[in-house]
Design brief:
Layout lengths: L4 E2 L13 E7 L2 E8 L7 E10 L2 H9 L1 E2 L2 E2 L4 E2 L3 E9 L11 E4 L2 E2 L5 H4 L10 E2 L12 E5 L3 E3 L6 H5 L1 H13 L7 E5 L3 H12 L4 E6 L2 H9 L4 E4 L7 H12 L3 E6 L4 H10 E9 L11 H6 L3 E4 L7 H10 L8 E5 L3 H13 L5 E5 L1
Parallel strand pairs: 14-15, 14-17, 15-16, 17-18, 18-19, 20-21
Antiparallel strand pairs: 1-3, 2-3, 2-7, 4-8, 4-12, 4-21, 5-6, 8-9, 9-13, 10-11
Helix pairs in contact: 4-5, 4-10, 7-8
InterPro entries: ADH-like_C, ADH-like_N, ADH_Zn_CS, ER, GroES-like_sf, NAD(P)-bd_dom_sf, SDH-like
Family: Belongs to the zinc-containing alcohol dehydrogenase family.
Pfam families: ADH_N, ADH_zinc_N
Length: about 375
Amino acid sequence: MGKGGMSQEGSGENGVEENLAAWLLGVNNLKIQPFHLPPLGPHDVRVKMKAVGICGSDVHFLKTLKLAHFVVKEPMVIGHECAGIVAEVGADVKHLVTGDRVALEPGISCRKCRQCKEGRYNLCSDMKFYATPPTHGSLANEVVHPADLCFKLPENVSFEEGALCEPLGVGVHACRRTNVGPETNVLVMGAGPIGLVTLMAARAFGAPRIVIVDVDDYRLSVAKDLGADEVVKVSLDIQDVDQDVTKIQKAMKAEVDVSFDCAGFEKTMSTALNASRPGGKVCLIGLGHIEMTVPLGPAAAREVDIIGVFRYKNTYPTSLEFIRSGKIDVKPLITHRFGFSQKEVEEAFEISARGGNAIKVMFNL
């Protein structure tokens, strides 16, 4: 499941339209080509894609063919933030029918290992995650996916909002890991897409005051529009940590209970550790640097807890409810929209890779 094969033909059998997907063939080389789906299993559904967002990991694979220890060694279908319409259901699927609108959770765990059995399936060592080699992704006309990882969209939730449940899930998971609530003052390091959804999630969980920092004025203005109480522009220079911490604490007007590092660099992590109060928490979400030198001694002396986050688990129902109820509005995150053609796919990834005023780039299929 979640895998298919490259076809050598341009048209389907018996005149049936061929399923097409965006294939990553090499560095800066994306091409729409046929994508053969696996047979529909009894617990699977076939889904027609309607909305697929571009994630930073997609761009990273396009530019370097690798991310952390994941390496693209053969052509791979890209994309994993997705929603669509159920086109066919397996024989044993009871909770979905043809025509249902669904958001797809893109990670398929083994369901048998210790992590899966303990409920931390996001840590499964045999995870098959869309568009993470060697598993194919979802920027395609259709995919086959386990039915229990497809979540019905409420009537007032669009396909685009359903696709954004994937990045929003990271923020929801991070807030759960750090027990964010009505008495938690939150600092968010980085106003990129993950920083912004973490801001939204923290507010939905009741955080009374949220300060977000970045080096970019435009992204800080977006964060302010999305509900940050204060924004702070910081520098890239590691020598400015103490100065930036003073600015952050002044903007918070209280102690920082939880800091979310959504960038993952030495500068951001050092700032988060120094800004958090004694007994506070720092949650590392971003992975800009796999290895970094940070002031652990002073943080340990103040009993600052460091908490890791990897993707998410059991977040889709909560994310959908936040969106349905209006507690979270993810629509402003979408800055660019494209159709599904060779030219548009290339342009969309180019815009996403440039950054600038592009927050979330979305395909409508």
